[in-house]
Design goal:
single chain, 151 residues, alpha+beta, Archaeosine Trna-guanine Transglycosylase, Chain: A, domain 4, six-stranded mixed sheet, 32% strand
Length: 151
């Protein structure tokens, strides 16, 4: 016999996970580079113990000096939008060995700059077309789905 209560409880859990989804606001061009799967590490000065699904939000800020490096990629760089969902797989302290590994990838997003702080390892990138402007926040934050329903 099929137990509808189990299905219903699983659906409630999925809805709760969506409503309580963690979000990270990132400046452009970095947010788009994550959404396109080009940038697999997000660099932060702080660490997090959170692991799991994470929405990537393009904030209103733009790193103008860096935008020129990526103009030949013919990408859109929207502001104030949810661009992707990713898995935050790990949060690694940036030491000499990890810096060397990242630089040796010769990824256009990283260049040869040595960094300090933490590298948030992102995987399973899926682009999202979320057609609503959303104001970003600092740190990891929860999206209020009721306030931010797509149009």
């Amino acid at each position: 016999m099929f137990d509808f209560n189990i299905v219903f409880l699983k659906d409630i859990k999925k809805v709760r996970e969506m409503i309580e989804m963690k979000v990270l606001t990132i400046k452009q061009p970095w947010a788009t580079l994550v959404a396109e799967g080009i940038k697999k590490y997000e660099f932060r000065s702080w660490k997090t113990n959170y692991r799991g699904k994470l929405l990537i939000h393009a904030g209103s800020g733009v790193d103008k000096d860096e935008m020129a490096r990526f103009k030949d990629l013919n990408l859109d760089f929207p502001a104030k939008r949810i661009l992707a969902i990713v898995d935050l797989e790990d949060c690694l302290e940036l030491d000499e060995e990890l810096n060397k590994k990242i630089i040796n990838e010769k990824n256009i997003a990283y260049g040869s700059k040595k960094r300090t702080g933490y590298a948030w390892k992102l995987s399973n990138v899926k682009k999202i077309n979320y057609n609503k402007d959303i104001k970003g926040k600092l740190g990891l934050w929860n999206i209020d789905y009721n306030e931010n329903k797509p149009r």
